[in-house]
Design brief:
This protein is an alpha/beta fold. It is built from 11 helices and 11 strands. Strands 3-2-1-4-5-6-10 form a 7-stranded parallel β-sheet, sandwiched between helices. A two-stranded parallel sheet has the order 7-9. A two-stranded antiparallel sheet has the order 8-11.
C-alpha cells in the first residue's frame, strides 16, 4: 500500500488498546512489520476481533520495564516506536493517581531511556493528549503554544509530564521524537464505556435509559475525531519526523461540539431515532470549551481530518451493533 512502510519494523506500545489496535492494523496494511507490546491482549480488543493480532509479533510486558524494552528494540531491530501505552481512563486517574502517573509519565521515561541506551537512533512518535491544556472555557481553538492550565483530574498532569519529557529528550539527547496531542477520539472497537460514544452505544445496545451520568451537564464543547484520522496522524508524523523533531502537533477536528449534540447524533446513527440524552452533572454557568488548532499539522505533516462526524458515528455504531456480543 505504501512502499515507504514496506518492511519497516515498528514497535507499538499499548498495542491492545483502542488506539494501539487501530494503529497496528494500519501499519500492517501498509506492509510494516509490527511488534505489539502490552500487558495483556483482551479477547474483546479490536486487535483480536479484527484478526490483527495474528499478523504481528507480540511481547507481553509492562511498559515501565526498561530492560524488556531494550531487549525488544534490539532483538527486532526496531526502526520506529509508537508509544501509546497509558492508563487512559480519566475517572480512574483520581482513584489511582500514583498508578496513573507511574504508567503515563514513568512509562514514557522508560521508552525514552530504552531508545537512548540502545543508540538513540530510533524514531519515536508519542501519543500525548489534549488534556495537556487543562480545563479551558474560551471559545477559541487552542494552539500548541498554549500553556497547561489547572485540570480536574490527575490524568492531565501525567500526560503533561510525559509530553514535556519527550520533547526534552529531543533537545537534550537528540532523540528523534515528536508528540501528537489528540482530543476525544472515538470509533470501532473502543470498550472504554466511560467515554461518551461507547457509553451511548452501550445504553442503546442494552436498551437502557439514555443516561450519561453526572460528570457533565451536556454543555461541554469538545473536539471529536474518528479513530482512522488518528491513525493517519501518527503515520503522517512518522513520515515527516525530520520536520517535527522535538515538536508537538495538535490532532483534532478543529471545532467544538457539545456532549449533548454528540449524544443526539450517536442516537440518530444507531437507528435513525434522536433520543434526548440525560446529563446529571451540575449546571455550569460557563461551559468548558476545548478544541484544537490543527493548522500546524496541516502545514507541516499534510494531515487534516477526512471523516465527517455523522459518517464516523454511523461507522462506529454499526460496528457496535455487529460486534456487541463479542465485546459485552
Amino acid at each position: 500500500m505504501d512502499s515507504g512502510w514496506k518492511g519497516r519494523i515498528c514497535l507499538v506500545t499499548g498495542a491492545a488498546g483502542f488506539g494501539g489496535s487501530h494503529l497496528c492494523a494500519a501499519l500492517v496494511e501498509r506492509g510494516a512489520k509490527v511488534v505489539g507490546f502490552d500487558r495483556w491482549s483482551p479477547r474483546n480488543s479490536f486487535l483480536a476481533l479484527s484478526g490483527t493480532i495474528d499478523r504481528i509479533d507480540w511481547i507481553q510486558g509492562d511498559v515501565r520495564d526498561v530492560d524488556l524494552l531494550k531487549q525488544a528494540l534490539e532483538r527486532f531491530d526496531v526502526a520506529t516506536v509508537f508509544h501509546l501505552a497509558a492508563q487512559p481512563i480519566v475517572p480512574i486517574s483520581n482513584t489511582l493517581p500514583m498508578e496513573t502517573f507511574s504508567v503515563n509519565a514513568m512509562g514514557a521515561m522508560a521508552v525514552l531511556e530504552a531508545i537512548r541506551l540502545t543508540g538513540n537512533r530510533r524514531d519515536l512518535v508519542f501519543a500525548s493528549s489534549g488534556a495537556y491544556y487543562g480545563a479551558t472555557t474560551t471559545d477559541e481553538p487552542i494552539a500548541e503554544e498554549h500553556p497547561p492550565l489547572p485540570a480536574m483530574n490527575t490524568y492531565a498532569p501525567s500526560k503533561v509530564a510525559a509530553d514535556e519529557m519527550v520533547r526534552s529528550y529531543a533537545r537534550i539527547f537528540g532523540t528523534r521524537a515528536a508528540v501528537c496531542r489528540f482530543m476525544n477520539t472515538f470509533g470501532e472497537g473502543d470498550s472504554n464505556f466511560t467515554r461518551l460514544v461507547p457509553r451511548a452505544a452501550r445504553n442503546l445496545a442494552l436498551a437502557e435509559p439514555y443516561d450519561f451520568g453526572d460528570r457533565d451537564d451536556g454543555s461541554t464543547q469538545l473536539d471529536f475525531l474518528h479513530i482512522s484520522d488518528m491513525t493517519r496522524a501518527y503515520i503522517a508524523l512518522a513520515e515527516n519526523l525530520d520536520a517535527g523533531i522535538g515538536e508537538a502537533f495538535n490532532i483534532g477536528s478543529g471545532r467544538g461540539r457539545s456532549t449533548a449534540e454528540i449524544a443526539r447524533a450517536a442516537s440518530l446513527a444507531w437507528d435513525g431515532t434522536e433520543r434526548t440524552p440525560l446529563f446529571g452533572g451540575p449546571a455550569r454557568s460557563t461551559p468548558i470549551v476545548k478544541y484544537l488548532d490543527t493548522s500546524k499539522a496541516e502545514r507541516i505533516l499534510g494531515w487534516k481530518p477526512a471523516v465527517p462526524l455523522q459518517e464516523a458515528l454511523e461507522r462506529t455504531m454499526k460496528w457496535y451493533k455487529d460486534n456487541w456480543s463479542a465485546i459485552a
